[in-house]
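Task: fold both queries, return tokens.
Query 1:
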Amino acid sequence: MSVPLSAARFRHALTAEGLRVAEVAGWETHNRNSKGPWGPVHGVMVHHTGTSGADSTVQLCYDGRPDLPGPLCHGVITKDGTVHLVGCGRANHAGLGDGDVLRAVIAEKRLPPDNEADTDGNCFFYGFECENLGDGKDPWPPAQLEAVEKAAAALCRAHGWTERSVIGHLEWQPGKVDPRGFTMHWLRERIGDRLK
């Protein structure tokens, strides 16, 4: 069981991993904690945004949408590899997913198929939204992929987790396809190498 990192420790974990961090004003207290618990945390979830344009993407993830209030994640990773901090605490990113997947993440074992949506993931996962259209054609620049790897590894390092604590939204919630453009197996291998 892991207690969520404070805003200061979250920022420090990312910068200590060598990431370039930008802070959106008020991110340290921007959350959805009034809607449910935040923690214990068990892992990191990676998404793509389905958008383009760094500034508008960051603003969307901070503000949310009419049907889904922000923050929509904890950090937005833009194409240039910058991690924009938009929230600290419960965020609307994971939604309902498979409790069997959560148990596998906690045990750091191979993930089962996600065939149920019976567990609130917003309570248990840090979330990174990555600027990408998610159409399978929009490129993932090397700087962005390296930042995704470093951001996930930073939180694993801070909590003493292995790469098996990092999942994609598509591995959590039936019907989701994100992140699209690389495989989570490939990303976990890179994270594992970084954590050695």
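Query 1 returned. Query 2:
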Amino acid sequence: MLLGYGGDGSTGNGNHPSSRSLKDVLLLALDTATPAVTVALHDGTRVLAESRQVDARRHGELLLPAVDRVLAEAGQKLDAVSDIVVGVGPGPYTGLRVGLVTAATFGAVLGVPVHGLCTLDGLAHASGLTEPFVVATDARRKEVYWARYADARTRLTDPAVDRPADLADQMAGVPAVGAGAVLYDTVFTGVRREAPEHQSAGALAGLAALKLAAGEELLPPQPLYLRRPDAQVPANYKVVTPR
């Protein structure tokens, strides 16, 4: 069953959780862990403005203009933001770091907390599903990042990265959402095409608002890679020092 995320959502920074009034909250949410460069502004109750552009090669170029655009659409200034929410992955190394570094910079400049959320959790929340399902995103290298959920709010397993073929036996007929599920629909045969395929910062912020209000603890804003970056030092690399 699909309910739609409706703009609800998380906690933060590794501090001890406590319930929080969202009366004066203004959340700036962003995520660059997938090909979608997405930004949203959320007042604790609803999404005020949101931007999403799908371009796997232009995260750094698109993110800051998207922040400016969202703030302008909502009629807000950056210094009004009370909290930063950022998707921590899993995702490819370069794109993921763009969002995390930007979030950390905003947090430091504004003096506000930065809260991390699993990117897969944002996609799960956006799906609105009330039954067990799987979220899968494209991890490149013919692999997917994935996790199981009891419903749109409750993750059952840690995020993992695997080849779709290795998951075939356990994914047949299981409801699935996300670009990875759509890409490998011969494995994820229960793919829900009516659910969002790409990440939504509005859903991420909505999930963060729910968790903040409930006093649930969020993740620290640290990257969740699950595998080593593509660029590595060659095995026979020799350091050359001047004489």
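Both queries returned. Flag for query 2: The chain is about 30% helix and 25% strand.
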